[in-house]
Amino acid sequence: MQGSLERIDTLNTRQFVIAVKKLADSLSYGTDSSPFRGSGTEYVQSRQYIQGDPIKAIDWRVTARTGRHHIKEYETPKQMPCFLMVDTSASMTISSTHWSKYALAVHLAGGLAFACLDRVSPVGLVGVGQDDIRYQPSLSRDQIMQWLHRLRHFDYHQETTLARKLTELATSLKNRALVVILSDLHERDSLAAIKRMGQEHDTVVIQLIDPAEVAIRHAGFLRARESESSATFVTGGKKLGVDLAAIAGELKRGGIDHLPLFTNESISHKIRNFFQSRGILGRGAR
Q1: Alpha-carbon torsion (5, 7, 8, 12), positive or negative
Q2: pLDDT tens digits, residue range 32-58?
């Protein structure tokens, strides 16, 4: 029985990895130019030799044509790091569709991580829950697979800590970074923290929404149970549902790129267009 479960888990893992890499492949962002010159991989120009330049960089064709020594210059990609902040709170696991918000967030995090590596952008992870989950930006595919496995095989029943984790991350960053938040934004204080982060860093919010969260706003009074604290209460539907217009308006005023994604819709085309139209990962070249 144990062997059968292991084979099923291996199959599911393979299917997950294939789906994640397919998403990464679909995010074809193009090529960014870099203002830096050095010993990179793409030829840029030739310039006259200066004492101390490496002999192996001499451009012999230009040297023969001009009679003066020239060396080749190449473009060196310089990419700022990307931090993926994945909401691991209990509210993300509640689902009325085949995909939960949490499953979709993990899927997107994997696709975006591999897309970053394709652009030579180091990528790290911050878990937005009570557990301390943080991986520093790296170009290691093994590290990505490590935190993806951890996210997929841990049972999260925690409270959201998005505002606190944003503040902690902001104080630890010495240079500009790209911060991509994958959350349902159920924490009231998170919007203010997101806007503060956006003042110093390129900040993107991908809001995961279950369709029931929108539909419930049209309901009357009902008894509910809070997913993170398990407390029961009676309230009106408008207080429980997601007010997309209000959230979108506040993030727009803060200059934050915001993409709402429903768990019952096809997301590949939508997220690809979102990133391409805004050139989000293109901001990584510096």
Answers
A1: positive
A2: 444 334 444 567 788 898 887 878 888
